[in-house]
């Protein structure tokens, strides 16, 4: 009975922790969803600007960011969480990376998030930068820094392709890891010009502006992926802690039933001993 009682107290203590973590994740999730939704217009506006410049050039766009070349080395931007207790959130991201790149020694990685940094450090993989350890603190400025770092490495020829792995937030119950190619960019489609369109003058020249916008466009992609991943992490943690709290409740009910049975058995045994002693006298 004493062992069962100690076990019940232990499970109750764990249940209090999981319940508190569930409430914290729920309170942060709303802001994270708003942040992810608010980041999308910036990305769409930059993409429309690229398409407008491509239309101004008549579709004849020459840029090192678009020109495809032989892929000898790939750089992966991997966005994971800063902590665990989020179900399969982090593992699903790493499984997707390993499925696309079975041999980690042939590629380099830009990890964003503490768990991502730890994952690639343990496997002695080449890490481009360790400056983005905390995904929760990533903002537009840090995303721009990461994008410029990748663009400079791509132009130098340190790697020939850049891919990004993050988790897309579909709903509270659905979050799926996604792998997308960031560089080289697909050729922007030439949009059909409307009959009445304002004349746009580009200074110094459309190609120079096009190449100048692409790092900002990449920063928008990185920031958008981080926002989606943060919302997904909080939703996954909320669901995991909710399941853990429910399992703890079921365990407490089962242990309470066992405790009551043991208590009733002890009382019955004591009564039996008292009756037997009275009869013997």
Question: Which value, in Å, is the CA radius of gyration?
Answer: 28 Å
Calculate the terminal CA-CA distance, rounded to whole Å: 31 Å
Coarse shape: elongated
Helix-strand makeup class: alpha/beta
Tags for this entry?
281 residues
Plain-language structure description:
There is one protein chain. Helix content is 60%, strand content 11%. By secondary structure, the protein is an alpha/beta fold. α4 (140-156) crosses α5 (206-280). The mean pLDDT is 80.
Structure in a nutshell:
The chain has 281 residues and is α/β, with parallel strands linked by helices.
Q: Which helices and strands occur, and which strands form pairs?
A:
Layout lengths: L1 H55 L17 E6 L9 H12 L7 E5 L1 H9 L3 E2 L12 H17 L4 E9 L5 E9 L22 H75 L1
Parallel strand pairs: 1-2, 1-4, 2-3
Antiparallel strand pairs: 4-5
């Amino acid at each position: 009975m004493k062992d069962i009682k100690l076990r019940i107290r232990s499970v109750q203590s764990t249940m209090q922790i999981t319940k508190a973590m569930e409430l914290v994740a729920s309170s942060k999730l709303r802001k994270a969803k708003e942040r992810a939704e608010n980041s999308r217009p910036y990305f769409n506006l930059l993409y429309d600007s690229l398409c407008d410049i491509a239309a101004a050039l008549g579709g004849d766009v020459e840029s090192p960011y678009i020109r495809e070349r032989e892929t000898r080395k790939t750089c992966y931007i991997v966005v994971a969480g800063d902590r665990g207790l989020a179900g399969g959130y982090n593992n699903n991201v790493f499984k997707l990376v390993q499925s696309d790149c079975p041999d980690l020694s042939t590629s380099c990685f830009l990890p964003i998030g503490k768990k991502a940094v730890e994952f690639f450090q343990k496997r002695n993989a080449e890490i481009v930068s360790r400056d983005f350890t905390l995904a929760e603190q990533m903002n537009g400025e840090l995303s721009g820094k990461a994008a410029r770092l990748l663009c400079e490495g791509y132009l130098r020829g340190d790697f020939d392709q850049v891919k990004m792995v993050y988790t897309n937030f579909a709903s509270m119950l659905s979050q799926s890891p996604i792998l997308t190619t960031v560089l080289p960019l697909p050729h922007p489609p030439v949009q059909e010009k409307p009959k009445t369109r304002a004349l746009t003058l580009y200074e110094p020249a459309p190609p120079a502006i096009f190449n100048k916008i692409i790092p900002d466009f990449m920063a928008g992609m990185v920031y958008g992926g981080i926002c989606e991943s943060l919302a997904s992490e909080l939703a996954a943690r909320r669901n995991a802690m909710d399941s853990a709290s429910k399992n703890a409740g079921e365990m407490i009910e089962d242990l309470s039933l066992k405790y009551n049975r043991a208590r009733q058995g002890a009382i019955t045994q004591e009564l039996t001993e008292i009756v037997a002693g009275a009869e013997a006298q």
